[in-house]
Transcriptional regulator, AraC family (Granulicella mallensis), 224 residues
Amino acid sequence: MRMWQTIRSSVFSRHSHQHAYAAIVLSGGYEEAGDQGRFWVEAGDVVLHDRFEAHLNRFPDSGAVVVNLPLPIGHSFSPGLANVPDLDFVIQTAETNQTQAADLLLSTAIVRKVIHADWPDELAVALIQRPSLNLSRWGEMNGLSPWAISRGFMQVFGISPSVFRARTRSRHAWKAIESSGEPLAQIAASLGFSDQPHMTRSVKQMTGLGPQAWRAAANRFKTT
């Protein structure tokens, strides 16, 4: 992934990033729809992406100029849309020292509330907050058939709501494995996995490593 990008009139199909990074929009704007929901970003905005995050991007004819700044492992932040008070200074710092620029950005970033444009956005937020959400019941409460939900959500996010829910559940599990000492079987049960092996397969599919490896890595990090 290049640090500086100028992109015009194109669609980047859904893709994932192994490493955390911040997309700093210098000019123009675009739509992003992914694991953190959907939002329209414009000049001055910053999109904070976590590790293993997937999304698609839609760029209008006017395009956008974006700076991609890698974020170091070990820093805690809330993924999503944010603003930084002195963005020019962050960019200037990044030209000579990306690590310092990332530290500065994360220490001053202010997460921004996203306005939901339509029901697919509301469903995505509901799934992020509750990965065990029953899709049929949600559809009944909102007057939408299963077919309408699947088709409408796919048009916006590039995947079905059931796949989105599975990814969200895997992400919740990965975070819990890294940040807590809770037994793996208990994490699996609390997030609605059929059993612990199901959680193991899901986490490994998303991150490339299984729960035991992530738990061991987290424990090593805490003792260093």
